[in-house]
Fold this sequence. Notes:
A: 0% strand, B: mainly alpha
Amino acid sequence: MAEIxxxxxxxxxxxxxxxESISRPNIGYWQDAWRRIRKNKVAFFSLCxxxxxxxxxxxxxxxxxxTHYTQNVNEMNQSFSSxxxxxxxxxGRDLWVRAWMGARVSLTIGFTASIIxxxxxSLVGGISGYYGxxxxxxxxxxxxxxxxxxxxxxxLLLMVVLGNGVHCLIIAMICxxxxxxxxxxxxxVLKLRESDFVAAAKIMGVKDIVIIVKHILPxxxxxxxxxxxxAIPNAIFQEAFLSYIGLGISPPDCSWGVLAKEGxxxxxxxxxxxxxxxxxxxxxxxxxxxxxxxxxxxxxPKLRGTE
Amino acid sequence: xxxxxxKRIGLSIVTLLVLTTIVFVLVRLMPxxxxxxxxxxxxxRANMEAYYGLDKSLPEQYITYMNNLLxxxxxxxxxxxxxSVNRIIADAFPYSADLGIRAxxxxxxxxVTLGVVASLNRGKKLDAVCIxxxxxxxxxxxxxxxxxxxxxxxxxWGLLPVAQYTSVAHTILPSIAVGFYTLAMVSRLxxxxxxxxVTSDYTKTAKAKGLSKWRITIKxxxxxxxxPVVTVLGPLVASVLTGTFVIEALFAIPxxxxxxxxxxxxxxxTLVLGMTIFFGAFLILMNLVVDILYGIIDPRIRLSGKGK
Lengths: 307, 308
């Protein structure tokens, strides 16, 4: 063992400014969440897949020289080929274009319905949780009653009343869909209401609505985004279900549900016509579920710094 | 406890009342009417409307309907002449219930097993397999699952019948199709709650006492870990029942779902109303039973229920 002598040490002195400086770059809540999502391979792959689907849904129908409604009697029920990448259906329509037109409709409905549900749910839940007392009691009674009603039935009947079409589907889903996020957000707001920063804002005389929107909602944002992400597959599934029983999108327009329905009719002879929409619905739902799991972990401050 | 149960029952009754009213209004708002597809002279039409009470004002109709409902009478179908709604439901419900119960048993038994196996083999290959099955299960809509099963087991390999509902072999594919989503949910929940239980103190105590691994798993861990599964059983029954809707159409099973979809397109007011109320009442009752059962099993719930 080497001998430790006095000469080996030297006085460095102390520099106040360097002691107080932050050595690592400052990372905010959102940057941190983004960093963790990128590190989570499964979630990041899911995010890329959804991005790819969205891009293809926008551009694939534009770039192809087929349209989703042109029928061609000479090219019925063709399998995969270089001219028809996903084959053709029983009316000779190109399934590649139809699949991506379907993606447009299904994704639009899924995203729009879930996001609007999330917004309505978090506002109502936020108000309910923040004010408490009679307001909370009244809203919670309404929510309890609505929650007990099977949502599928109401959506189904609303669709019959409103008629077919994308707007009607979204409206029908919103009527009952906001309750889930309302319950989640209320629970979280009940906790945050007692926190110090809310008390500070109140003392400074900030208006209630500003406290809810600027101080409380950003803190539940991670939760809301996660629940919206998890709600998208449900909305896509509901759309597929309604289209399947003939209450969603009417022909010649199509969604994944419509494509699956048309494919199932040809199942015995041309099974590939089911496989394409089935694959797309399943991978989308899978990706969104996995992304939701990843987001939940990424937004959880308790898991911060554990890699 | 009595107060908790009374409160739950009261809430259920209000829910049912609201449901009935909403559905009554919605059904009347539907475009078209039950007789629009039949050709008939205005006189016959007026007679028919008078027969079913459709000539009266909406509030009057509502009061009559609610009064009949209190006596358990759901009225007569407007499309199938002389068939009471009660009769149609009584004929169709056994099929749906049979399918639903089979699917539920399948889902709970396999779901719990899968969850337990996964948690006991945490991080190993078997765990990964179970997780993959669970993830796939939650990502495939039931009608796609059903048609894929039909294609592979029925058409490609010719193992099982693809339509009708007459023998045990006929029930296998639809039960799997309806129950698969539920299976996936149950196994995910079971795995998560088992992982919590595995590190608990009473597991350590049981181990310290020198109990065998099997005994610990079955007597101590599963009994505690199964609690969250019991809570979601109410909503799960709902999802299983709505699942039967499409699957019944797909497999040509003469159950409630098939009649329901048909009665909507027929504008058969009384049948739609009656079935919705039956369906809703059934689900609300299920939730009520599960809530009360859970309150009995776990005393913490009914105590914290006050704050809710």
